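User: Can you help me understand a structure? I only have the sequence.
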Amino acid sequence: MRAFRGIIATIVVGVLCACIVARGAPNTAVVSSSCNSRTYTAYSPYDFNLRQVLSYITYKTADSGYSAFTESDVNGDPCYGHGACYGGLTHPDCTSCLKTAASNLWDGCPMRVGGQIQLQDCRIRYENYPFSE
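Assistant: Let's start by predicting it. Here is the structure, written out as tokens:
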């Protein structure tokens, strides 16, 4: 009987853990966003650097402990960025959330040298100067 209770307890704990990890798609509801008023020129070095930063944040944040800082400085016009995900997300869900955040930034802060967006399960910030959060 004691062995049976142990097996049942193990199954219950396993199911509860699986429910916590497999919580479904990330919540990409926008909590807040803001844009720098300064702009950059299309196809400029800053445009290239921003694309590099957002790509790195989108695809590497989950692999970096769910928080990643990066910078790109090609041709002397640097861009700095930070991405973060809620730690309960799976790696694919973190990446998916950050893709949505990056897309929202492109649409919401066109040609701006800085912007940030907080979704329910992730966030991205980029600027033309170093920052910490």
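Now, to help you interpret it: The longest strand covers residues 79-85. Confidence is low (pLDDT under 50) at residues 4-21. Let me know which part you'd like to focus on.
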